Amino acid sequence: MANEVKRTFDILEFCLSEFSRKDALGGKNGNDWYVYSTAEYVEKSHQFAIGLMALGLKKGDKVATVTTNRPEWNFADMGLAMTGIVHVPIYPTIGDDEYSYILEHAEIKLLLVGDKKLYEKLSPIAALLPEITHIYSFEEVEGVSNFEEILQLGKAHQEELSAQLEEIKKAVDPEDLATIIYTSGTTGVPKAVMLTHNNLVSKVL
Description:
The chain has 205 residues and is α/β, with parallel strands linked by helices. The chain is built from eight helices and eight strands, in the order H-E-E-H-E-H-E-H-E-H-E-H-H-E-E-H.
């Protein structure tokens, strides 16, 4: 069946084929709205995936995001999924001890934060965890690597790595781990809930 959805990133091609829109995702920059089309969603997710590959990340590695809602989070989520890298989304309002525990317990290698405030909160914690080799911000923060740099890296390596990405995508199994969601930790340390692609896809189709 064409465009059959078995892994989370299969949703991209399904939506491009069946429900393509000029305003698939939207966000706000100050008081101004901006949108991404379905085609841009697909393109930027692939760019992000190739950018991660160019940075040396591989299937089974863990990447954390700590941010409020924003459309670019979706590019990260899909890009991670298609490379077999595990996404660990973390609430932007928890305490330092919880951040420290989750980032270390999940063995995070790359951290994406939403803005300057979250960078200032999380960078001292990340500095104590040698597993974390990169920190990027979704919003522009002076002196901090920006999310857009990963997309640009993906564009620069597109010709070189696109075929390899397609092979990696084919090898991602529906029962592969897609994400780890941590509980709030109200009865002790946060507990890791491990979800496969099938766990997630079965709830949206």
